[in-house]
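Encode chain A's predicted structure.
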Amino acid sequence: MSGERITLLDGGTEAYPRMLAAIASATRHVHLEVYAFEYEGVGTHFIQALTAAAHRGVEVKVIVDGWGSIGESRALADSLRPAGIKVRVHNPLTSVLLLGRLWRNHRKILLVDDTVAFLGGINIGDHYAAAEGRPGWADLALELRGGICAQLGARLNAGASALAAGPVRLLLSGFGGGWRLRARYLAALAQARREVVLAHAYFLPDRGFVRALTRAARRGVEVHLLLAGRSDVPFARAATMRLYRTLLRGGVHIHEWTETTLHAKAAVVDGQRLLVGSFNLDPLSLVNLETLVEVEDADVAGQATRWVRRHLSGARTVGLEDCARSGPQRWLLDVVGLAVARFAERVATFIGSRRMRRRG
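Encoded structure for chain A:
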Protein backbone atom coordinates (compact mmCIF):
# COMPACT_ATOMS: atom_id res chain seq x y z
CA MET A 1 0.00 0.00 0.00
CA SER A 2 3.10 2.21 -0.49
CA GLY A 3 3.17 3.25 3.16
CA GLU A 4 -0.36 4.69 3.08
CA ARG A 5 -2.72 3.46 5.78
CA ILE A 6 -6.42 3.95 5.08
CA THR A 7 -9.27 3.34 7.54
CA LEU A 8 -12.93 3.69 6.63
CA LEU A 9 -15.01 5.13 9.46
CA ASP A 10 -18.76 4.70 9.91
CA GLY A 11 -20.11 8.08 10.93
CA GLY A 12 -19.22 10.08 13.97
CA THR A 13 -19.60 7.00 16.16
CA GLU A 14 -16.32 5.64 14.80
CA ALA A 15 -14.71 8.89 13.68
CA TYR A 16 -15.03 11.14 16.74
CA PRO A 17 -13.06 8.98 19.23
CA ARG A 18 -10.21 8.61 16.72
CA MET A 19 -10.26 12.30 15.86
CA LEU A 20 -10.14 13.29 19.53
CA ALA A 21 -7.32 10.80 20.17
CA ALA A 22 -5.34 12.29 17.29
CA ILE A 23 -5.76 15.81 18.69
CA ALA A 24 -4.72 14.56 22.15
CA SER A 25 -1.51 13.13 20.68
CA ALA A 26 -0.61 16.24 18.65
CA THR A 27 2.86 17.65 19.23
CA ARG A 28 3.23 20.29 16.50
CA HIS A 29 0.03 21.48 14.86
CA VAL A 30 -3.68 20.78 14.42
CA HIS A 31 -5.81 22.02 11.53
CA LEU A 32 -9.59 21.55 11.86
CA GLU A 33 -11.80 22.75 9.02
CA VAL A 34 -15.53 21.98 9.05
CA TYR A 35 -18.70 23.42 7.57
CA ALA A 36 -20.72 23.05 10.79
CA PHE A 37 -19.42 22.97 14.37
CA GLU A 38 -22.05 22.60 17.08
CA TYR A 39 -20.86 24.21 20.29
CA GLU A 40 -22.76 21.91 22.65
CA GLY A 41 -22.61 18.12 23.04
CA VAL A 42 -19.71 16.44 21.26
CA GLY A 43 -18.51 19.92 20.31
CA THR A 44 -17.50 20.51 23.94
CA HIS A 45 -15.17 17.48 23.76
CA PHE A 46 -13.48 18.93 20.69
CA ILE A 47 -13.19 22.34 22.33
CA GLN A 48 -11.53 20.74 25.36
CA ALA A 49 -9.15 18.68 23.22
CA LEU A 50 -8.18 21.65 21.04
CA THR A 51 -7.66 23.88 24.08
CA ALA A 52 -5.53 21.27 25.81
CA ALA A 53 -3.39 20.91 22.68
CA ALA A 54 -2.87 24.68 22.52
CA HIS A 55 -1.84 24.75 26.18
CA ARG A 56 0.81 22.10 25.37
CA GLY A 57 2.29 24.48 22.83
CA VAL A 58 0.66 22.94 19.76
CA GLU A 59 -0.26 25.38 16.98
CA VAL A 60 -4.02 25.01 16.52
CA LYS A 61 -6.11 26.49 13.73
CA VAL A 62 -9.89 26.12 13.36
CA ILE A 63 -11.92 27.18 10.32
CA VAL A 64 -15.72 27.01 10.27
CA ASP A 65 -18.20 28.23 7.70
CA GLY A 66 -20.24 31.26 8.63
CA TRP A 67 -23.46 29.80 7.26
CA GLY A 68 -22.95 26.18 8.32
CA SER A 69 -22.05 27.28 11.86
CA ILE A 70 -24.50 30.16 12.08
CA GLY A 71 -25.40 30.82 15.72
CA GLU A 72 -22.42 28.77 16.94
CA SER A 73 -19.33 30.47 15.53
CA ARG A 74 -19.14 33.39 17.97
CA ALA A 75 -19.36 31.17 21.07
CA LEU A 76 -16.82 28.81 19.50
CA ALA A 77 -14.36 31.62 18.80
CA ASP A 78 -14.83 33.09 22.29
CA SER A 79 -14.01 29.68 23.80
CA LEU A 80 -10.94 28.93 21.68
CA ARG A 81 -9.17 32.26 21.16
CA PRO A 82 -8.17 32.81 24.82
CA ALA A 83 -6.03 29.65 24.52
CA GLY A 84 -4.17 31.18 21.56
CA ILE A 85 -6.08 29.18 18.95
CA LYS A 86 -6.50 30.80 15.54
CA VAL A 87 -10.19 30.79 14.63
CA ARG A 88 -11.47 31.86 11.24
CA VAL A 89 -15.15 32.14 10.33
CA HIS A 90 -15.42 31.85 6.56
CA ASN A 91 -17.85 34.37 5.07
CA PRO A 92 -19.92 35.13 8.18
CA LEU A 93 -23.52 36.22 7.79
CA THR A 94 -22.52 39.89 7.68
CA SER A 95 -20.39 39.31 4.57
CA VAL A 96 -23.28 37.45 2.96
CA LEU A 97 -25.78 40.24 3.67
CA LEU A 98 -23.51 43.23 3.00
CA LEU A 99 -21.16 41.95 0.30
CA GLY A 100 -23.13 39.11 -1.31
CA ARG A 101 -20.45 36.52 -0.55
CA LEU A 102 -22.55 33.38 -0.91
CA TRP A 103 -19.76 30.88 -1.61
CA ARG A 104 -19.18 28.45 1.21
CA ASN A 105 -16.35 26.46 2.73
CA HIS A 106 -17.93 22.99 2.77
CA ARG A 107 -14.76 21.02 3.56
CA LYS A 108 -14.43 18.58 6.46
CA ILE A 109 -10.72 18.14 7.29
CA LEU A 110 -8.81 17.34 10.44
CA LEU A 111 -5.03 17.23 9.94
CA VAL A 112 -2.71 16.52 12.87
CA ASP A 113 1.09 16.92 12.69
CA ASP A 114 0.98 16.21 8.93
CA THR A 115 0.85 12.50 9.84
CA VAL A 116 -2.86 11.70 10.21
CA ALA A 117 -5.83 13.21 8.39
CA PHE A 118 -9.60 12.70 8.56
CA LEU A 119 -11.75 13.63 5.55
CA GLY A 120 -15.31 12.87 4.54
CA GLY A 121 -18.81 14.19 5.06
CA ILE A 122 -18.86 14.43 8.86
CA ASN A 123 -19.19 17.78 10.64
CA ILE A 124 -18.94 18.25 14.41
CA GLY A 125 -22.38 17.61 15.92
CA ASP A 126 -24.27 15.10 18.03
CA HIS A 127 -26.53 13.82 15.24
CA TYR A 128 -23.57 12.29 13.39
CA ALA A 129 -23.00 9.73 16.16
CA ALA A 130 -25.22 7.13 17.81
CA ALA A 131 -26.26 7.80 21.40
CA GLU A 132 -28.58 6.08 23.90
CA GLY A 133 -30.10 3.78 21.33
CA ARG A 134 -30.49 6.53 18.75
CA PRO A 135 -28.62 5.81 15.49
CA GLY A 136 -26.47 8.54 14.04
CA TRP A 137 -26.77 10.03 10.60
CA ALA A 138 -25.58 7.73 7.82
CA ASP A 139 -22.20 9.11 6.80
CA LEU A 140 -18.61 8.07 6.05
CA ALA A 141 -15.12 9.39 6.61
CA LEU A 142 -11.58 8.22 5.93
CA GLU A 143 -8.62 8.24 8.27
CA LEU A 144 -5.42 8.60 6.25
CA ARG A 145 -1.85 8.04 7.42
CA GLY A 146 1.27 8.30 5.31
CA GLY A 147 2.83 10.62 2.77
CA ILE A 148 -0.51 11.97 1.58
CA CYS A 149 -0.88 13.80 4.92
CA ALA A 150 2.35 15.78 4.47
CA GLN A 151 1.22 16.71 0.96
CA LEU A 152 -2.11 17.87 2.35
CA GLY A 153 -0.39 20.01 4.97
CA ALA A 154 1.66 21.72 2.27
CA ARG A 155 -1.37 22.46 0.08
CA LEU A 156 -4.12 23.38 2.56
CA ASN A 157 -3.96 27.07 1.69
CA ALA A 158 -2.96 26.71 -1.96
CA GLY A 159 -6.39 26.60 -3.58
CA ALA A 160 -7.20 23.80 -6.00
CA SER A 161 -4.82 20.86 -5.59
CA ALA A 162 -4.51 17.25 -6.76
CA LEU A 163 -2.46 15.06 -4.44
CA ALA A 164 -1.51 11.41 -4.82
CA ALA A 165 0.36 8.78 -2.83
CA GLY A 166 0.08 5.03 -3.38
CA PRO A 167 -3.58 4.10 -3.85
CA VAL A 168 -4.84 7.48 -2.60
CA ARG A 169 -5.76 10.47 -4.74
CA LEU A 170 -6.94 13.59 -2.87
CA LEU A 171 -8.57 16.55 -4.58
CA LEU A 172 -9.11 19.97 -3.03
CA SER A 173 -11.32 22.22 -5.11
CA GLY A 174 -10.85 25.96 -5.18
CA PHE A 175 -13.96 28.11 -5.41
CA GLY A 176 -15.70 27.18 -8.63
CA GLY A 177 -13.41 24.17 -9.04
CA GLY A 178 -15.94 21.45 -8.32
CA TRP A 179 -16.03 20.47 -12.00
CA ARG A 180 -12.74 18.62 -11.48
CA LEU A 181 -14.29 16.59 -8.68
CA ARG A 182 -17.34 15.89 -10.82
CA ALA A 183 -14.98 14.70 -13.56
CA ARG A 184 -13.57 12.03 -11.23
CA TYR A 185 -17.08 10.65 -10.72
CA LEU A 186 -17.67 10.65 -14.47
CA ALA A 187 -14.37 8.84 -15.09
CA ALA A 188 -15.31 6.22 -12.50
CA LEU A 189 -18.70 5.71 -14.15
CA ALA A 190 -17.14 5.39 -17.59
CA GLN A 191 -14.66 2.77 -16.35
CA ALA A 192 -17.21 0.71 -14.39
CA ARG A 193 -17.73 -2.84 -15.64
CA ARG A 194 -19.95 -4.58 -13.08
CA GLU A 195 -21.43 -2.38 -10.37
CA VAL A 196 -21.65 1.23 -9.26
CA VAL A 197 -23.26 2.19 -5.96
CA LEU A 198 -23.66 5.85 -5.05
CA ALA A 199 -24.80 7.05 -1.63
CA HIS A 200 -25.56 10.76 -1.82
CA ALA A 201 -27.48 12.98 0.55
CA TYR A 202 -28.20 15.94 -1.74
CA PHE A 203 -28.54 14.49 -5.22
CA LEU A 204 -29.18 17.17 -7.85
CA PRO A 205 -26.91 16.17 -10.75
CA ASP A 206 -26.91 17.94 -14.10
CA ARG A 207 -28.25 16.32 -17.26
CA GLY A 208 -24.80 15.18 -18.35
CA PHE A 209 -24.31 13.26 -15.13
CA VAL A 210 -27.76 11.68 -15.38
CA ARG A 211 -26.90 10.54 -18.90
CA ALA A 212 -23.64 9.04 -17.63
CA LEU A 213 -25.57 7.00 -15.05
CA THR A 214 -28.09 5.69 -17.57
CA ARG A 215 -25.37 4.93 -20.16
CA ALA A 216 -23.56 2.80 -17.58
CA ALA A 217 -26.80 0.96 -16.74
CA ARG A 218 -27.59 0.34 -20.42
CA ARG A 219 -24.22 -1.25 -21.09
CA GLY A 220 -24.91 -3.77 -18.33
CA VAL A 221 -23.49 -2.13 -15.20
CA GLU A 222 -25.63 -2.54 -12.07
CA VAL A 223 -26.19 1.07 -10.96
CA HIS A 224 -27.71 1.63 -7.53
CA LEU A 225 -28.47 4.98 -5.91
CA LEU A 226 -28.89 5.20 -2.14
CA LEU A 227 -30.68 8.51 -1.61
CA ALA A 228 -32.25 10.37 1.28
CA GLY A 229 -35.81 9.37 2.07
CA ARG A 230 -35.80 12.24 4.53
CA SER A 231 -33.50 15.24 4.53
CA ASP A 232 -32.27 17.94 6.85
CA VAL A 233 -32.60 20.41 3.95
CA PRO A 234 -36.21 21.50 3.21
CA PHE A 235 -37.51 20.40 -0.21
CA ALA A 236 -34.20 18.72 -1.17
CA ARG A 237 -35.95 15.36 -1.61
CA ALA A 238 -38.64 16.93 -3.81
CA ALA A 239 -35.92 18.30 -6.09
CA THR A 240 -34.31 14.86 -6.34
CA MET A 241 -37.57 12.99 -6.94
CA ARG A 242 -38.17 14.83 -10.21
CA LEU A 243 -35.26 12.81 -11.65
CA TYR A 244 -36.59 9.42 -10.59
CA ARG A 245 -38.63 8.62 -13.69
CA THR A 246 -35.72 9.32 -16.07
CA LEU A 247 -33.27 7.32 -13.99
CA LEU A 248 -35.57 4.33 -13.50
CA ARG A 249 -36.42 4.17 -17.19
CA GLY A 250 -32.70 4.23 -17.91
CA GLY A 251 -32.17 1.11 -15.81
CA VAL A 252 -30.87 2.76 -12.62
CA HIS A 253 -32.02 1.27 -9.29
CA ILE A 254 -33.14 3.78 -6.64
CA HIS A 255 -33.35 3.19 -2.89
CA GLU A 256 -34.41 5.68 -0.20
CA TRP A 257 -32.88 5.55 3.28
CA THR A 258 -35.41 6.62 5.90
CA GLU A 259 -34.15 5.14 9.19
CA THR A 260 -31.98 8.21 9.83
CA THR A 261 -30.80 11.19 7.82
CA LEU A 262 -28.50 10.17 4.99
CA HIS A 263 -25.54 12.58 4.86
CA ALA A 264 -22.95 10.51 2.95
CA LYS A 265 -21.30 11.58 -0.29
CA ALA A 266 -19.69 8.41 -1.60
CA ALA A 267 -19.48 5.95 -4.48
CA VAL A 268 -18.05 2.44 -4.86
CA VAL A 269 -17.11 1.13 -8.30
CA ASP A 270 -16.67 -2.59 -9.07
CA GLY A 271 -15.72 -3.24 -5.43
CA GLN A 272 -12.27 -1.77 -6.19
CA ARG A 273 -12.56 2.02 -6.12
CA LEU A 274 -14.02 4.29 -3.44
CA LEU A 275 -14.82 7.97 -3.79
CA VAL A 276 -15.76 9.82 -0.60
CA GLY A 277 -15.59 13.39 0.63
CA SER A 278 -17.57 16.56 1.26
CA PHE A 279 -18.53 16.91 -2.43
CA ASN A 280 -22.24 16.59 -3.20
CA LEU A 281 -23.56 15.92 -6.68
CA ASP A 282 -25.41 19.22 -6.78
CA PRO A 283 -24.84 22.68 -8.31
CA LEU A 284 -23.61 24.34 -5.12
CA SER A 285 -20.78 21.86 -4.60
CA LEU A 286 -19.43 22.91 -7.99
CA VAL A 287 -18.69 26.41 -6.63
CA ASN A 288 -17.93 25.78 -2.94
CA LEU A 289 -14.65 24.69 -1.33
CA GLU A 290 -14.85 20.89 -1.30
CA THR A 291 -12.77 17.73 -0.88
CA LEU A 292 -12.81 14.36 -2.62
CA VAL A 293 -10.71 11.32 -1.79
CA GLU A 294 -10.37 8.51 -4.31
CA VAL A 295 -8.98 5.18 -3.12
CA GLU A 296 -7.98 2.30 -5.38
CA ASP A 297 -7.86 -0.48 -2.83
CA ALA A 298 -10.01 -3.62 -2.76
CA ASP A 299 -10.02 -3.92 1.06
CA VAL A 300 -11.21 -0.35 1.69
CA ALA A 301 -13.65 -0.45 -1.24
CA GLY A 302 -14.96 -3.77 0.05
CA GLN A 303 -15.66 -2.23 3.46
CA ALA A 304 -17.52 0.61 1.78
CA THR A 305 -19.47 -1.85 -0.37
CA ARG A 306 -20.61 -3.69 2.74
CA TRP A 307 -21.60 -0.39 4.37
CA VAL A 308 -23.70 0.58 1.36
CA ARG A 309 -25.29 -2.86 0.98
CA ARG A 310 -26.23 -2.88 4.64
CA HIS A 311 -28.03 0.40 4.12
CA LEU A 312 -29.56 -0.77 0.86
CA SER A 313 -31.05 -3.76 2.65
CA GLY A 314 -32.82 -1.42 5.07
CA ALA A 315 -33.88 1.11 2.45
CA ARG A 316 -37.12 1.44 0.50
CA THR A 317 -36.83 0.46 -3.16
CA VAL A 318 -38.43 2.98 -5.52
CA GLY A 319 -40.16 1.72 -8.67
CA LEU A 320 -41.73 3.32 -11.71
CA GLU A 321 -45.15 2.72 -10.18
CA ASP A 322 -44.20 5.19 -7.43
CA CYS A 323 -43.56 7.83 -10.09
CA ALA A 324 -46.83 7.13 -11.89
CA ARG A 325 -49.02 8.39 -9.09
CA SER A 326 -50.98 11.49 -10.00
CA GLY A 327 -53.03 14.03 -8.15
CA PRO A 328 -52.56 17.45 -6.52
CA GLN A 329 -49.87 16.25 -4.07
CA ARG A 330 -47.72 14.76 -6.83
CA TRP A 331 -48.16 17.85 -8.98
CA LEU A 332 -47.16 20.09 -6.09
CA LEU A 333 -44.05 17.99 -5.38
CA ASP A 334 -43.01 18.24 -9.02
CA VAL A 335 -43.49 22.01 -9.03
CA VAL A 336 -41.60 22.47 -5.76
CA GLY A 337 -38.84 20.10 -6.87
CA LEU A 338 -38.33 21.93 -10.15
CA ALA A 339 -38.31 25.30 -8.37
CA VAL A 340 -35.69 24.12 -5.85
CA ALA A 341 -33.49 22.63 -8.57
CA ARG A 342 -33.67 25.79 -10.69
CA PHE A 343 -32.97 27.98 -7.65
CA ALA A 344 -29.87 25.94 -6.75
CA GLU A 345 -28.61 26.18 -10.33
CA ARG A 346 -29.10 29.94 -10.47
CA VAL A 347 -27.45 30.53 -7.11
CA ALA A 348 -24.46 28.46 -8.23
CA THR A 349 -24.29 30.40 -11.52
CA PHE A 350 -24.46 33.69 -9.63
CA ILE A 351 -21.71 32.63 -7.22
CA GLY A 352 -19.52 31.48 -10.07
CA SER A 353 -19.94 34.74 -11.98
CA ARG A 354 -19.19 36.78 -8.83
CA ARG A 355 -15.99 34.82 -8.25
CA MET A 356 -14.90 35.30 -11.86
CA ARG A 357 -15.49 39.06 -11.66
CA ARG A 358 -13.46 39.25 -8.43
CA ARG A 359 -10.58 37.38 -10.07
CA GLY A 360 -10.81 39.52 -13.19
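Confidence is low (pLDDT under 50) at residues 327-343, 353-357.
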